[in-house]
Amino acid sequence: MASPDQDLVPVLDKDGVRLTVDDAIATVTLTNPAKRNAQSPALWRALTEAGRQLPGTVRVVVLRAEGKSFSAGLDRQAFTPEGFDGEPSFIDLARGADTELDATIAEYQEAFTWWRRSDIVSVAAVQGHAIGAGFQLALACDLRVVADDVQFAMRETSLGLVPDLTGTHPLVGLVGYARALEICVTGRFVTAEEAVNTGLANLAVPAGQLDDTVRDLASAVLAAPRDAVVETKALLRGAQDRTYEEQRTAERQAQARRLRDLAGIGD
After folding, report:
1. Has residue 1 got a pLDDT over 60?
2. pTM greater than 0.90 (yes/no)
3. How far, in Å, are 44, 90, 110, 186, 251 from residue 96 at the CA level?
4. Is 201 exposed, middle or buried (0-12, 13-18, 19+ CB in 10 A)?
5. d(Cα 33, Cα 70) in Å, to the nearest integer?
6. Residue 65 dihedral angles phi and psi, to the nearest 5°
7. CA 230, 232, 235, 236: dihedral to nearest 10 degrees?
8. Share above pLDDT 90 across residues of the chain, in percent, rounded to a whole number
9. Residue 56 in contact with residue 64, Cβ under 8 Å?
10. Which one of 9, 39, 142, 231 counts the least CB within 10 Å of its CB?
C-alpha cells in the first residue's frame, strides 16, 4: 500500500513509527510491514512522542500502517527470557514490585490515550489483521475506517492475559458489554461486515480505496469550524458519564460559548 505521506518530511521517524504533517492533517504510520507491524515498548514510546510533537495546527490525525496487516499485536519476543534489546523482559517486569509494574504498564498505555484529545479527531485506517495490541490501537482512535479484508481479534485472554492498553472501555462503549465479553474471551475474528454492523467501524471499503476514503473523511471533518468540532467532541465523549439532565445542561453551556464566540463576545 503506497504511503499518502511519502513526499512529506517526517517530523518523527523511528522504531516503526513515522509522523508527517500536512497543514491541519497529521499522519502516523506504522512502518514495519515485514513483521506485520508487531508492537514493542520502543514503538509505544515512539507513538507517545508522536502525540507530543503534534503542531497546534493539526485538527485531524490519521493512523495507518504499511503492508498487508495493520498490526499483528505484541511482538512475541516480549515473552521470551531475553526480551528486547535494552528493555526489561516481561518476565523480569512480572518479578518486580507491584508499583513498578503498574507504572510500566501506565507508561505503555500513554501511546494509546492521546488519540482521544478534544482538540483533534483521530481516524484509524485499518487493513488486514488488527490483533490484540493492534486492535486496541485502532480502538484508541475516535473513528475507524476498515478495508473489507480486516480481521480484528482480542487474543490477550487466550494467552492468559487481559487487554490492558486502554481498549476495553471503547470496545464496551461501541458494541456493548455482552458482545465485548464474547469477543475478548473467545479471541475470535471480527470481520469488516460485523465491525460496521455493530458500530465498531464507521464504514468498510475495498482495500485499494482505504487511504482515499480516509482522506475524504478527514476533509469532511475539516470543513466544520474547529471550535465547534472541539465542543461537539467533548459533548459526545462525556455523554455516557452524564445523566440526561446533566447532558442537557452541558449542551446549553457549550452552545452559549459558541454563540458568544460567534458574536465576538468574550466570557
Report:
1. no
2. yes
3. 21, 10, 21, 30, 47
4. buried
5. 8
6. -145, 145
7. -110
8. 87
9. no
10. 9
